[in-house]
Structures are given as C-alpha cells and as structure tokens.
Amino acid sequence: MKREIVKDIDLNKIKTMKDLTDQMALSGGYVAKKVGDGSQILQKMTRDKDCKRILSFPASLVATGTRGIIKELVKRKIFDMIITTPGTLDHDIARIYRNYHHGSFEMDDRQLHKEGVNREGNVLIPNESYSEILEEKVRKVIGDLYNKGVRDVSPHELVWGFGKALEGEKNKEDSIIYWCYKNNIPVILPGPLDSSWGWQLYYFWQDEHKDFNLNLMKDEDVISDLIYSADKTGALMIGGGISKHHTIWWNQFRGGLDYAVYITTAPEWDGSLSGARIREAISWGKVREDADFITIEGDATVILPIMISSLLEVI
C-alpha cells in the first residue's frame, strides 16, 4: 500500500477556498482532511451530468445563517431534490417576516420562558417571530389554496404553494422554499406534521375541512421517479434522523448511492442512525460498495461554508 506524505498547509499559497480545501485534503489532519476529501467528492458528484443529487438536512440549520447556504444551493439548481424535516418551513417562512436573535447556550431558560422567548442552541426565537407569525401566515395560505379547490395535495406540492405565496414579499429571495418553487425542486417531508407548520395543517383539517388531505404517497411517487430514472445518484446529507434515512432508504432500491457525503456530530457507539457512518449503509445496500463516500464529524455550520464556497468556485 502506497503511503502518502502529510503536507503542511501553506497559507501563502491559498488564494481561493478551493486552494484551502485542496490543501486540507493533503494535510493528513484529522477532520481537516475529511473536509478536503469531502469537498472533492462533492465537486465530482456535482460535475457528473449523469447524477441526480439529493440534499438532506434537519430544520435546525434554517434557524441559523446556514439558511443562506442552503438557499444558494437550490437557487443555483445544484440539487434535484431536498429531503428535510417540516421545521424547515417554520424557520424559512418565519424569517421572511420576523428576526431571530443571537443568544448563548448558557442562558437561563426559565427566564426566557417567562419572557416568551424560545432558545434553539444559541439562537433566540421570540414567540412573535415564530408561533404567532406562523399561525397568521400559514393558515392564510392554506385557506387560500383550499378556496382555490386544493383538496388532495402532496407535501411537496403544498411547499411549492407556500413558495408561490411568497412572490409578493420583499425578502422572498432569502427563502429556501421560494427558490424550490421557482426551480421546481421538490421538498420531501417524510414526517410533515412534526412542526408548527404541520400543526397548522392539522388545525385547519380539524376546523371543518375534513376533505383536505395531505397525500404522502404522492411524495413517494416523486422520489421513486427520481431514483429509478437516474443513471447515478448522489447525496449531501447533513445530520441524521428521518431526512438521512429517507434518502438512503430509497436509494437501496437502485443498488445504492454512487456518491455520499455525510456530516454529523453524533457518536457511532449508540447505534443511532445519526451516528451511523456511511460505511454501515453499504452493508444494507443503501450505498454502493464502489461508491465515493465519506463521513465528516463536525458542526455543519462551520463545515458547510468552507465546502460550499469551494464548490461554487469550480462549477
């Protein structure tokens, strides 16, 4: 086995983000090398014209400035499908109208509750910036769609309906779902009711609209069409849970992903899907034995700006 030499990162030779990630790949330096190698896999996957690409992530990222990175990926049509949790719509819609604020992990949560402020890590979300504005905006859009005859609708069609409803908003171009609507990128929500957005759907259905049906099977048809029509498939998966699993689950039916980049902070030893490294998915046939794949341990809010900046320089 040929052994490669560990090379120092030379800051004097770094002119671009791609220069940085290329040097990280040669540095032999723990997670830095993984970020460099992952960047190269992501670039190869994006340049492969025969590859259909899926982006999966949890909603929590959308409460942070990382929302802007995800927005740019769909605005530029780099991914063909998003698989996420419905809280993505909570944060994406709420932040069109109201601001979130900086906080810290060590704040007094009892005091925050008394003040009507919700804490997500070190992000502060006042009630008026979340539940109050979502109840107002979500119920209106659902009502408008219902009055136009929408009855049996898939989650991804409903997401596009919400994206279209943003057309008159001045901040629309900051929105992930707006660009997914504009670019016909389906947003798949395997667990659509687990959010404030989803809860408003339930309230609407309960309130004398029992003919309104959220049809999950239509979403599965969309995934099936993408999977079975693709010569190759690739995925950038951020965090685990239902978003990651739905991505790899469907790919097993075509023999597995050809490219897989996974970013996680979860430990492997607890047996969770979030902690499971990509190599484990090979045993299930969810990733091909000869796939280009990597698991990168670390915080996606740090890693993604580096990797995606590098990617955008070369595509």
Briefly say what this structure is:
By secondary structure, this protein is of the alpha/beta class. The protein has helices at residues 17-26, 30-47, 67-75, 87-97, 109-114, 131-147, 155-165, 176-182, 196-206, 216-229, 241-251, 278-284, 300-312, and strands at residues 51-57, 81-84, 101-102, 117-120, 123-126, 152-153, 187-188, 213-214, 232-238, 257-264, 287-297.
Describe the protein in words.
With 315 residues, this protein is an alpha/beta fold. Helix content is 46%, strand content 17%. The chain contains 13 helices and eleven strands. The chain has a six-stranded parallel sheet, sandwiched between helices. It has a three-stranded antiparallel sheet with strand order 3-5-4. Strands 6-8 form a two-stranded parallel sheet. A hairpin with a 2-residue loop joins strand 4 (117-120) and strand 5 (123-126). Helix 2 (30-47) packs across helix 13, helix 6 (131-147) packs across helix 9 (196-206) and helix 7 packs across helix 8 (176-182). The longest helix is centred in the first third of the chain and has 18 residues, at 30-47. The protein is globular and about 70 Å long. It starts with 16 loop residues before the first helix and ends with a helix. The model has no long low-confidence stretch (mean pLDDT 96).
Question: What's the SSE blueprint?
Answer:
Layout: H1 17-26, H2 30-47, E1 51-57, H3 67-75, E2 81-84, H4 87-97, E3 101-102, H5 109-114, E4 117-120, E5 123-126, H6 131-147, E6 152-153, H7 155-165, H8 176-182, E7 187-188, H9 196-206, E8 213-214, H10 216-229, E9 232-238, H11 241-251, E10 257-264, H12 278-284, E11 287-297, H13 300-312
Parallel strand pairs: 1-2, 1-9, 2-7, 6-8, 9-10, 10-11
Antiparallel strand pairs: 3-5, 4-5
Helix pairs in contact: 1-2, 1-13, 2-13, 3-8, 6-9, 7-8
